[in-house]
Here is the input.
Amino acid sequence: MAGSADKGTLSARLTNGLGLIWGMADHVVDKLFRYIGCFGLVRGPLLFFFSGMWPPARGMLCRATVPGSNIKVSLRLGSSDISVFNGIFRWLEYGWDLEQSPRTVVDGGAYIGLSAIYFTMRYPGVRVIAVEASESNFNLLVRNTSAFPNIEPVHAALWPQPGSLELTDPGTGLWGLQVRDAGTQDSVRQSHDLDSVRAITIPDILRDYRLDKIDLLKVDIEGSEKELFGAPAPWLDQVDAICIELHDWFKAGCSRAFFSAVEDFSVEAWRGENVLVARA
Here is the structure.
């Protein structure tokens, strides 16, 4: 009986070990293909192994060409920029079929400008107000969109009230930075570790940029959608469509707040983690 138990334990350990090896190999292959999606069959593998083997290379800027164009953007090696590029330009996560091409897009959580560039390519003549809270992401956004006069970068965070917010990193990297009210008790305790950023409201944007309405509001703000849509807002009447990524795993109640606020948007469609609601 003891020999049988030992064999069972050995078999279980071997199975678990093989599963771990397989999972690690699958993760490496996935990352490799993401680099190929950004930089091509030759540069992609070279940059993948370069950034993996030499830690100082992580964060280094490298140019990538947007598929189907001669547009080049700067991406940070070893960062979430690689996945975001693939999601937007390879997997077309914002490739919605809207009844009318939007003339005005507000890109909330514009990151390094890739989604703003995608909207510009997909909807010729569109005006994009690109809002990003992180200073490092915003600086790269400005760099990537400098050749597009129709993209207007805004260093701020979408929020239901004007004021000041504090930027936090929950450990998810550059694409998962969150904001919170600078006046909260938790914020006061940790304020020495945080950067502040201006809060901007949708009414602020409508007024400051002289918009009668927003044809498409894109929202990817890492859980702050709970606050943004947490109370009925008159500005929703000036929005025709909203594309949003919901983050209930960051902050419980995001989906509930959003769908309660947009009950009169009769169209609903999903594409991966993103949902589109629109007026019929």
Remarks:
- Residues 185-192 have pLDDT under 50 and may be disordered.
